[in-house]
Write a structure and sequence with these properties.
about 0% helix, four-stranded antiparallel β-sheet, 11 strands, seven-stranded mixed β-sheet, mainly beta, about 120 residues, single chain
């Protein structure tokens, strides 16, 4: 069983920055991609950014140019650098890892709260 643990959330003023981390315990065999998602109150969970094992990164249009996703494969950790934060970025941010190892798998972290004040 793999566990994903997020950290780095908090309260920041609009225009500020935060860096989220997601550490995976153990080696994720068969991994296809890891991603960051977010869910604001009353809204559906949405993709923020995702990185494939090949290094391809896709960002949601709403965060392009402001957020940067990266990874440290040796540490089984992915990061989300969030700059120029806006109040509409306020949400619980979740880390995700999915792949196939005999059967498909889909792991989620517990989430970390990001609150951006105006």
């Amino acid at each position: 069983q793999v566990q994903l643990v997020e950290s780095g959330g908090g309260l920041v003023q609009a225009g500020g920055s935060l860096r989220l981390s997601c550490a995976a315990s153990g080696s994720i065999s068969g991994l296809n991609a890891m991603g960051w998602y977010r869910q604001a109150p009353g809204k559906q969970r949405e993709l923020v950014a995702t990185i494939t094992t090949g290094g391809s990164i896709v960002y949601a249009d709403s965060v392009k140019g402001r957020f940067t996703m990266s990874r440290d494969s040796a540490k089984n950790t992915v990061y989300l650098q969030m700059n120029s934060l806006k109040p509409e970025d306020t949400a619980v941010y979740y880390c995700n890892a999915w792949g196939v190892l005999a059967v498909p798998y889909d792991y989620w972290g517990q989430g970390t709260q990001v609150t951006v004040s105006s």
